[in-house]
Amino acid sequence: MVIQALIADDEALARRKLRDILARDPEVEIVGEAASGPETVHLVREKAPQVLFLDVSMPGENGFDVLRELSAADGAAALPRVVITTAYDQYALRAFDARAVDYLLKPYTAERLRVALERARREILSSTPQSRAALPPNSRTTAGTTAHTPHLTRLLIRSRGRILFVWVSEIFWIGAEENYVRINTGRESHLLRETISSLEKKLDPEMFLRIHRSSIVNLRLVKEVRARSRGESVVILANGQKIAMSRGYYSRLRASLQVH
Asked: DSSP letters of 3-36?
């Protein structure tokens, strides 16, 4: 599937960097470049890109003004997937509220850009038009949830000078570490200041299950359950990780996986 992308940044060097990296992907077609807010609005309406790489600080209108204008005039469902690109980290929460797919802090690497592009690609392939909506700030209830989506869908994590949007569907398991939780994805792990009990209440119980007082697993990524001595078991995930399961949680896991 070829993805049509639009680049919006007032700096020529920044546009060239984005263009050069995206050009290496044969499944990406760059349909236009904009150097200002008004030009971005015009090109989005004219070209209807599937992904918009949007700088926050641009002349005329900033990136959030662009999203607000497009959403107000054309309807939120008409918006492309948005990847925010900026040199400043203070806009992360606003980007999160605007349901940006990802948030790239300049200077970013080619690999980091490819991760953002892959997230946008997965959303395009899997979600319905309604889920593409970039909601206004007052629609946010809790981090990553909306009035129409009661369960947590993603997390905003600050890690080693980066700001990451982690989609819960990418999480393999979650482990408790005192007043923090460690979010484990297939490739990385990140600390989030929240208790495991608090986070458990925000997750979709059809996707996530607590199997130990200090562990939650993604049921869709459970590959195998092996019994151990003394009634304890181990859950093996799709990436090969093994998570201990307490005896008291075994029946819950069997019921969730519909094992008889």
From this structure: EEEEEE-S-HHHHHHHHHHHTT-TTEEEEEEESS
- pLDDT tens digits for range 47-76: 999 999 999 999 888 999 999 998 887 655
Kindly report the pTM of this predicted structure.
Answer: 0.64
Residues 21-33: tens digit of each pLDDT = 999 999 999 999 9
Domain harbouring 73, CATH code: 3.40.50.2300
Span 240-245, average pLDDT: 91
Task: With respect to residue 142, please indicate whether it lies within any of the assigned structural domains.
Answer: no
Average pLDDT over residues 131-159: 53
Spatial CA neighbour of 235 closest among 258, 260, 210: 210
Number of domains in the chain: 2
* 208: Cα separation from own chain's centroid: 17
Contact between 168 and 203 under an 8 Å Cβ cutoff? The reply is: yes
Task: State the CATH number of the domain containing residue 185.
Answer: 2.40.50.1020
Q: Are 109 and 145 in contact (CB under 8 A)?
A: no
